Amino acid sequence: MSHPEALTLRFLGLCGSLRRVSSNLALLQAAVQLAPAGVQLRIADPLDRLPHFNPDLDVPPLPAAVNAWRAEIAAADAVLICSPEYAFGVPGVLKNALDWLVPSGELYEKPVGVITASPNHGGAAHAQRHLVDTLTAQQARLVEGASVAVPFVRKRFDASGALTEPEALAILQGSLAALVAAIRADATAP
Fold it and tell me: What CATH code is carried by the domain that includes residue 104?
């Protein structure tokens, strides 16, 4: 992958929650606002648009939603996943979406950051670990500095939805910067 410094990088944000008022979606929306110069971060449509993964369906003609999903991931220079933890694991809708990428390999060596939102430091460690395991199996390139837990409570956002808490802002900015640095390092590698 070659990216000149002036080229806009395309990041795709994936929200593991389907809730209309989701802490994870709010964090991704904050990340859109914090994206550094030269980065366009777009949040993917809710993941419940995909059918349940079934290898029997992974034959032409593929469901249209699956074709669109795979193309969306393939077009991204990096992926930023923000997920809650449900019952010590990853929400089923997120795992299902990732399962659709296994046979086709769109995440292979793609830089990925994993953000988990938690009311305390480490409260979503199980989800983070499960996501890391799933992404490692798919040979995604997990970017260490981009994979973070954000201590989160709703009061960290103002009435307009802007993230106001300095620690959370710094964590998100660091995550985005780490993804950019990983891509830039690839571009300059011999």
Answer: 3.40.50.360
Residue 53 CB partners (closer than 8 Å, separation 6+): 96, 99, 100
How far are the Cα atoms of 4, 141, 180 from residue 8, in angstroms, in the given order?
Answer: 9, 20, 11
Question: What's the whole-model pTM score?
Answer: 0.90
Domain that holds residue 87: 9-188
Q: How far is CA 68 from CA 20, 75, 114, 154, in A?
A: 22, 11, 22, 33
Residue 4 lies in a domain: no
Q: How high is the pLDDT of residue 44?
A: 97
3-state class (DSSP) for residue 17? coil
Write phi, then psi, for 141 (nearest 5 degrees): -95, 100
pLDDT of the residue at 61: 94
How many folded domains does the chain comprise?
1
Longest dimension (CA), the chain: 49
Q: CA nearest 27: which of 131, 136, 149?
A: 149
pLDDT of residue 41: 97
Averaged pLDDT in 10-residue chunks for the chain of 190 residues: 64 94 87 94 97 95 96 98 88 96 96 82 74 95 91 71 84 95 84
Q: Which of 141, 143, 145 is nearest to 171 (CA)?
A: 145
